[in-house]
Amino acid sequence: MGPFLLNAVRWLTGGQTGKVGVNTSLKDLCSLLSEHGLECSLEPHLNSNLGVYCCKAYSDKEAKQMQEFVAEGGGLLIGGQSWRWASQNPGHSPLAGFPGNIILKCFGLSILPQTLSAGCFPVPTPEMRSYHFCKALSEFQAILNHGNGNLEKRCLAKLRVDGAAFLQIPAEGVPAYISLHGLLKKMLRGSALPAVSRENPVASDSIEAAVLSLATGLAHSDCSQLAKELGTRTCSSNLYPSKHPITVEIEGNNPGNNDYWVSTGLYLLEGQNAEVSLSEAAASAGLKVQIGCHTDDLTKARKLRRAPMVTHQCCMDRTSQSVSCLWGGLLYIIVPKGRQLGPVSVTITGAVHAPYYKLGTTSIEEWKRQMQENLAPWGELAMNNILTVPTTKLQALENPEPVLRLWDEMTQAVARLAAQPFPFRRPERIVADVQISAGWMHSGYPIMCRLESVQELINETSMRSRGLWGPIHELGHNQQQDGWEFRPHTTEATCNLWSVYVNETVLGIPRSKAHEALSPPERERRIKDHLGKGAPLCDWNVWTALETYLQVLSRNSWGRG
């Protein structure tokens, strides 16, 4: 890194008469430059006597001065990573809010939140250097307008990712960005959105995938009117948004350590706008509105069965705000961790009611009425877990109470094994989606599963007779703690303890029948194989590692022996 920094500073000093100023937070850099004959000094702030200024990217207090400094010919060496900022500011784009990007945006540069694995990287080849965002965009426009253009698939795939990132940068005050936004609007208004679906996927390096990404990003960043224009081309529903305000009361207390979603029971149709209103006190509490629950980012997927990003968040820092999302979705209020707001009234105009059953609150008569009248495409079943599934699947559920009471028992067992209070401070969520970012299911908030798994989530008879493994496995992942994990060996092992526990203690299904990998012959074979190899640590994972815990349990059955 030393030679690189020296070369960078020498390049910046070319033709400059002033000295190099190094921010006081970079003392080692100042020493390095001095040792190699560069005149430099430690400076607490940028000043007019400098020809080059070196600083970190974690403060934007001098953003305007730095921008003017560069505009007048000064050299700026600035560096930092934005992934930590992104992790600490969920719902905020680092390309818009990270301090370094506030400084850099008018220079046509931004620091992305992605990371790279450590290693050596080759000097870019001429082929790699041939890609340029604006050039690729011009070729893309030619393809959309005339059906011909010379844009390689690798460039098209990169344009899709770069375009989505670019559209997160606020265009205000930067004429070049405003011009590009205008060009993109014109391009997309003249083209149809691809009808992507499970039955009609598109390749990630296709024109269709690029249109999906750019349309989503532009609709979020530029104007709700564009979302409305494009959204009407994808919506086949006969639903119409309510013209009358709907007021819902949400729980504003969040004693947990993480933000959590509060369901409103409302759905925003594709491309429509909703007006969200709340009190001044609530508007100053850091609440957010989220449209949609399918939060997996499919940017790296090879094929797309939906757009890469289909949710959108807005900060509710005003008493009234218009929100929209190209793809529509269930509406949530996000309550930050540690808030004690009590009941909060939220008034929403422009949404429709979605099916929503809450155990202990919703009557069977009310549920039947909802199934006839609330025809939004997605609905929710709520207890101490919340299941989000297609309405078409809910229509076959005449009485959700039995299956939700079973889920309540299973969730209580999950908490008991994790030694956590029940109900959870933040209810777990399981969301079905046409496509997810990894595996058949994956843990997180929310837990994501494929549409094919919906039936096992809501079929009480099946759960009691055949057991339930995958969803409990993911709930187990969410309970894992670093203090008692031996990563990476036990990551996919200890989570299965919850599956075994719930199947045995709630569903009455012994471990030998709960999963084929736990049949006595399979367990015996696995132990012999592992010992026959000398019990190498590298092979102690998943089922082999689980065996260690199960052997302990054979002497002390779930703490009762």
Automatic annotation (TrEMBL):
GO MF term (any one): transmembrane transporter binding
Transmembrane intervals: none
Gene Ontology annotations of biological process type: positive regulation of protein targeting to membrane
A Pfam match: Peptidase_M60
Highest rank taxon of the organism: Eukaryota
Domain Peptidase M60, first and last residues per copy: 259-557
Gene Ontology CC: plasma membrane
Protein name: Peptidase M60 domain-containing protein
Organism: Callithrix jacchus (White-tufted-ear marmoset)
Lineage: Eukaryota, Metazoa, Chordata, Craniata, Vertebrata
